[in-house]
């Protein structure tokens, strides 16, 4: 059975109004990663980190999936083989577009995590230092997102999918963040055809057998049509 693995990054959500993190105009142009997206930054100033993720959470609630998200959902529904969708994004736009299954390797903006008991629940619009866990009441709630220096979620499942895939596509990724930037090499070793779909070449573009450049809302639906033979 043919098996497709798709990795998506911030570029697929940019046209929905969710800003990218890297590149011109990205969030990390004006904000320091070390302050907002590391365990050390959270330890230094948890209020500032909560404020940032409250803002991102509220922003994500105002945007809608675009044609690229919808095309991937269509591929998952209509393809005759297995389609595994992995996203680096913490928004919920793939689910909003109708994707039946999404692996969130970097967590979800809509989630909260208790660092005392590992309980997870739907985050409120506003979180702050000392927010209590609904399971154990410890004041240890944080955003359920993976920060730099932390292990991404679901790596065993992802590794297994890459080892079996026949087609690997990276969509809207910078190729600068590992381990995701190395997925193309894992897929290549498994014998898969590899394709990068991006607005511009990523840092690992030379690792791909095929490239398609342009706006995600145009390139992704066209690629999905090709895969489905339409």
TrEMBL record:
Domain Deacetylase sirtuin-type: 1-230
Family according to the record: Belongs to the sirtuin family. Class III subfamily.
Gene assigned in the entry: cobB
Protein name, UniProt field: NAD-dependent protein deacylase
EC number per UniProt: 2.3.1.286
Positions contributing to substrate binding: 53, 56
Function: NAD-dependent lysine deacetylase and desuccinylase that specifically removes acetyl and succinyl groups on target proteins. Modulates the activities of several proteins which are inactive in their acylated form.
Cell compartment(s), UniProt: Cytoplasm
Catalytic activity: N(6)-succinyl-L-lysyl-[protein] + NAD(+) + H2O = 2''-O-succinyl-ADP-D-ribose + nicotinamide + L-lysyl-[protein]; N(6)-acetyl-L-lysyl-[protein] + NAD(+) + H2O = 2''-O-acetyl-ADP-D-ribose + nicotinamide + L-lysyl-[protein]
Annotated source species: Primorskyibacter flagellatus
Cofactor note: Binds 1 zinc ion per subunit.
């Amino acid at each position: 059975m043919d098996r497709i693995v798709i990795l998506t990054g911030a570029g697929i959500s940019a046209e929905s109004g969710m800003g990218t993190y890297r590149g011109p105009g990205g969030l990390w142009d004006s904000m320091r990663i070390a302050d907002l997206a590391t365990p050390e930054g959270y330890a230094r100033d948890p209020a500032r980190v909560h404020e940032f993720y409250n803002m991102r959470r509220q922003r994500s609630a105002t945007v809608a999936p675009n044609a690229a998200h919808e095309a991937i959902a269509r591929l998952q529904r209509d393809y005759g083989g297995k389609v595994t969708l992995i996203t680096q994004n913490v928004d919920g736009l793939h689910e909003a577009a109708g994707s039946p299954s999404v692996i969130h390797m970097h967590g979800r903006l809509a989630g909260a995590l208790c660092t005392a008991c590992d309980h997870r629940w739907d985050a409120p619009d506003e979180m702050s230092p000392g927010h209590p866990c609904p399971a154990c009441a410890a004041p240890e709630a944080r955003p359920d997102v993976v920060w730099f220096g932390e292990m991404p979620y679901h790596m065993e499942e992802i590794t297994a999918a890459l080892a079996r895939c026949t087609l690997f596509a990276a969509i809207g990724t910078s190729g600068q963040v590992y381990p995701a930037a190395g997925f193309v090499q894992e897929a290549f070793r498994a014998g898969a055809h590899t394709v990068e779909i991006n607005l511009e070449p990523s840092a690992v573009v030379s690792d791909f057998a095929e490239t398609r450049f342009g706006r995600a809302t145009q390139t992704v639906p066209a690629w999905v049509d090709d895969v489905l033979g339409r």
